[in-house]
Amino acid sequence: MANKGQIGVTTENIFPVIKQFLYSDHEIFLRELVANAVDATQKMKALAASGDYKEELGDLKVGIELDEKAQTLKIVDNGIGMTEEEVDKYINQIAFSSAGEFLEKYKDQIGNIIGHFGLGFYSAFMVSKKVTIETLSWKEGAKAVKWTCDGSPAYEMEEIDKADRGTVITLYLDDDSKEYGEKAFGKEQEWKDGKYVDTDKDKIVNSVEPLWTKAPSELKDEDYKAFYRTLFPMNEEPLFWIHLNVDYPFNLTGILYFPKLKDRVAVERNKISLYCNQMFVTDHVDNIVPDFMTLLHGVIDSPDIPLNVSRSYLQSDAAVKKISTYITKKVADRLENIFKEERAQLEEKWDNLKLFIEYGMLSDEKFCERALKFALLKNVDGKYFSFDEYKTVVEAQQTDKDKKLVYLYATKPEDQYAYIQAAKDKGYDVLLMDCELDAHYVNLLEQKLTDIRFARVDSDAVENLIPKEDKMKLEMKEDERYDLENLFKAVLPEGPDYFVQGDNLGEDGAPILITQNEFMRRYREMSALGGGMNFYGSMPDSYNLTVNMEHPLIAKIWAAKQADVAPQAELPAEAPSDASEEEKNPNLKFVSNGIAPLLEGDPDLNKLLSRRKLSWEPYDAFIRETYDSMSRKDYFKEYMSEPGSSLTGDASLFIKMFEEEFVDSKELEKILEDMSIWWNDDLAY
After folding, report:
1. Does residue 497 sit in helix, strand or coil?
2. Residues sharing a CB contact under 8 Å with residue 433, sequence separation 6 or more, in sequence order
3. Count H helices, E strands: the chain?
4. Are 133 and 167 in contact (CB under 8 A)?
5. What is the SS3 string spanning 339-405?
6. CB 59 within 8 A of CB 159
7. What gap in Å lies between CA 410 and CA 433, rounded to an integer?
8. Which residue has better confidence, 341 or 471?
9. What confidence score (pLDDT) does residue 633 get?
10. What are 116-169's pLDDT values in tens digits?
11. Which of 186, 139, 172, 135 is nearest to 157 (CA)?
């Protein structure tokens, strides 16, 4: 005869609360119920180990059975089971867990008990309109019982016939939870008669041995690599790993891998799985480990992290905070140990580690303090240095007049080749800072390292990057500065802001130098990556155009400007639309057949084109294609108005042609540098 009663709760509304608010994710119910089933099998092992149970244990497994037609889901175990009294105590009195009592009695025989059966069991009602428990205790003479509840505080309990020890929990899924009644487990399948069909073999969903439960001393490198291949079969071999194993003041095991990055832009996150006593909980651990740690791969397992992983709860949970701090410390310990004991390995893998370490230093103050001891700097020649080592290497040459050490760096060595070479010619070293976070990173290092500043190698003339003494400013009258600015701005394309200024860079210096202010460029890049600097992100691109007033070419242009050359003649009227190119542009023949062959035949130019791995054709095509826009410029009108015009004495036409085409691209920096080589070699222009 069935016994009826009321579940011991303090309110009639306990089940609506459970259904809506107990857990942040409804699928957690299955994890809770499986956890309870695993708990029951672990207790059974403990009883056998203590000698209290002397019969055959059998196959201690947990099964999940789905009946799609009946819309029921069963969780089956052959663990310790429950007597009628235990069901009344642990099920009818909500939140009364048996784990505390059991642990106290068998603490020496059992390693892991989840022990959340009380309230955790009721997570089943988040997806069920009715739940039954059929259970038979391991105790001799125990009788099997069935407990039934339809989601109200009322329940029924009766004796039943059940031959096997253990518990079967049956969930009758409600209409809002039909997705849990779809086939997900079941049997292994095979291909037969043109389709997959079920076999008699149960589908095992957790066949991977939990390597993290073993002692590190029992494992070899190949064990860790094989486990990684099992978890991430499509990934390359990891760089290295950390085995976590702590039992005080909290319990935590796990293995974290440093993945090899194919592309720093395509970083994979959420590759750390959280387990509770070997039962999967979630792969979103962003509130359990520091954010930068989510770049790692692997497994962490802790019974001290509750299964109801709501974000707000985790953020305030003391155990979670301790675990987060511990993991950060262990990762830092491992990296520092590699730096001290296996420096060559760290250098070899630095390019893959750099993003992770920089992100950690930027986002976690404690990690940053540790990382300053093992982080590396790499120069454009591929040499690696610690912060202390690099300071020793460059302080003699790269200390400025204010006693600040200046670290020069490049982000794109090929594009910044001329600037790098100019710095090397002065005896300077240039770092490579090509990571996506480096704009933020150099800013951080300027705060953490004493009396050090960073300057990108193309942020100013090499003479100004590390000023050794106060420099005499170029004396120009206000109207002269105005004329100089207008002279060059007249031929610059619209879009970016250009700040034109004169300077004395020597006769052998480049005639024109285009740079970007270190502060403005860096903060624009930081804004693009985020970080609360939207003000700088909204500002247009700006460039400094420095005119070398001591260069012979510039001196000629400036002298001509100061002499106030006579107004230029008008160009011919436009030809009809159906006219040929040369009819439309009478001087095109001169441009292509006069300028181009003259320059093409120059051995120095051919040498330049060969070094740049370029051919003449693009430049010839450029001259043709840009004639229309050039012909509208004052400097071209002035040039063409003079009888018998030729390139002799006027290389400025050619440089301005290139400015017109390339000033808004990185190629201009190369071209202007090369032009300075032509004219410095006295090519008789």
Report:
1. strand
2. 409, 410, 411, 441, 442, 454
3. 27, 22
4. yes
5. HHHCHHHHHHHHHHHHHHHHHHHHHCHHHHHHHCCCCEEEECCCCEEEHHHHHHHHCCCCECCCCCE
6. no
7. 6
8. 341
9. 45
10. 344 568 778 888 899 999 999 999 999 999 999 988 878 899 999 999 999 999
11. 135
